[in-house]
Amino acid sequence: MTKKVLVPIAPGTEEMEAVTIIDMMVRAGYQTVVASADFDGQLTMKASRGVTLTADCKLVDIADDEFDAVILPGGVQGSETFRDSTVLVEIVRQQMYEGKLVAAICAAPALVLAHHGLYPEALMTCHPSFESHIPAKNWRVKRVTYDVNHNLLTSQGPGTALEFAMEVIINLSGKAHAWTVAEPMVTIPTLQYHKLGDE
Question: Where is the DJ-1/PfpI domain (predicted)?
């Protein structure tokens, strides 16, 4: 059965993170829904460095859909919009209650998850400049951090986006499937994506 993932975007979303995540979810064969969290309902918007991003639909239109993963790209302005979106926060909260994967990168773990106290016991990372937003007992200095007990995946920034997206694929479909995505991309050998199958 095809996995279904949600990637919300907003004005000021970090484009390298958003595009890497979306691209790799598509490469993995997932049904990838890019939804606008823009309060004005605009589907086309400027990302943090001025690149134009276009969503498939408005977030409110898919609020009742079920997803195997909800993946939040970062960017300060975009994360602040996510933080202030009652629809998105409720989607993430429902995903959490159902034990399904939530993934967030860069500013999003701090400005969305930590701000709303959604994972008070979970281990997480975020962009180093937002470390102070994460309680010390929860903070991990890792490029990609997965808390298996809470099914929460977090990462640090644009330079970790590929590793982050690959870990989403490993989580949803296993290492063997992740390798079919990684190999033709000629990923960094030290990322250790290989043909050993699910472990």
Answer: 3-169
